[in-house]
Amino acid sequence: MSALPELDEEMEQGLLESGGTGGGPTPAVRRARAWLSRVAEPGSIPFWRFVEDTGPVEAVRRLRSGRAPDAVRSLGGARVDQDATAADLLRAQRCGARLVVPEDDEWPGLLLHALTVATSEEPDDARHQSPRTTAPVPPMALWVRGQARLDELVDRSVAIVGSRASTAYGEHVAGELGHQLGERGWTVVSGGAFGVDAAAHRGAMAAGAPTIAVLACGIDRVYPAAHGALFHRITEDGLLVSEWPPGAAPHRHRFLVRNRLIAGLTRGTVVVEAAARSGAQATARRADRLGRPVMVVPGPVTSATSVGCHELLRDIELGAVLVADAGHVIEAVGRLGEDLADRPPRPTDARDGLSDVAVRVLDACPVRAGVSPERLAAVAGCDVLDVLRVLPALELADLVEWTGTGWRLARPEQRGAR
């Protein structure tokens, strides 16, 4: 990558070129959003509104020149006087990543519009706005690593989230869900963490389907460190996505902010295992605020890792749906009337389809000694003719047998012998 001009110089030139040709973002716009992705932590309502009102290039000019409102400029602090865009873009290029901005065709604007709507409902007074870690603020830009197009992968996507300290049950369910969804053409989105996240990613990849890991650090960093091979596999067909520029560390507060992006990039969120206090629960509540379905896999009532799941199901206002397989999930997030879950298979029984009289006669038959049709009629509470009418059918079904002196239930070892 050739050396970039000074940031302020490019912003001045970019302002003159803001008329553009309509062929996508100008280099100045892309660089402006790269700078904005580092200068302030994501999730700030005042900062996002300032950039929306002025445009990214003008926002950078005002912040750099000290003409931005003090409340907005303070959100960047010492970072406002720094410029690491050249290094960020170079690091991204070296690891096969790119910066996707709202002005790109690849931007998943349809799904992320729910964040814009939710932010517009926030009060103007900052004292009454949602905290930064839970505010439904759209991202300034997204650093994306992998060859697939972001907008195409998230068009039919489902988030699977859950506990990092998962049980064997939770990992099995998450892997099965990821595999089944992948087989049906759905992209699994999760956070790349230990436990349920990793199981969901691996399940999708086992089905030959792409998956997306939304990170709380730079896309050139592997966190957790043990997931280097997993992240490499994800980028082969899927994507690593982050709001933070390359090199950014996985600070704890960033995981809370990241949750809204997992919810916003998908058509629904499935919680497989969640403790009483967990990030998975937080992601589910972000999804609900965005109007997306919340689905929950129940667990044993004795399991601490399923307490959060059961609390979500008990929350009447949340309206979470209990799911047990991919069919249930797709029914909740798919096309109305088309993506319906198959009914669970039910074991068949020889009594299925019998008339009421036939069932009563069958129940009246003794196990050992045979009895006459008259006796069966008395016990079953019907006419002898009704008994004589149903006995041949019951005999053909190997449910009753003639002993020579009367009728009785057929012995199990004789059933199906004909």
TrEMBL record:
UniProt GO BP: DNA-mediated transformation
Coiled coil (residue ranges): none
Pfam families, alphabetized: DNA_processg_A
Gene3D superfamilies given in the database record: 3.40.50.450
Taxonomic superkingdom: Bacteria
Signal peptide: none
InterPro entries: DprA, DrpA_SLOG
SUPFAM superfamilies: MCP/YpsA-like
Record-annotated Smf/DprA SLOG domain positions: 134-332
Family: Belongs to the DprA/Smf family.
The protein's name in its UniProt record: DNA processing protein
